[in-house]
Amino acid sequence: MANKTQSQVNLNHHANQMNPNNYQYQARMDNHANQLNPNNKLYQGGKK
Asked: Of 7, 19, 21, 40, which sits with the fewest C-beta atoms within 10 Å of its C-beta?
């Protein structure tokens, strides 16, 4: 279970790096992804 969760977090992080302007993806990020991408302004503006 822990390994699967870690893979999902890493996948989110890499996907955002490859698609930095993908606003649809950024809007769907969870807390783990936001922690890895602290400069995600769309996330910060939409959820706190």
From this structure: 21
Residues 6+ apart with CB under 8 A from 6: none
3-class secondary-structure state, position 42:
helix
Contact 30, 12 (CB under 8 A): yes
Contact 26, 15 (CB under 8 A): no
pLDDT in tens, 1-48: 555 555 555 555 555 555 666 555 555 555 555 556 666 666 555 554
Domain assignment of residue 32, given as a range: 2-46
Residue 45 CB partners (closer than 8 Å, separation 6+): none
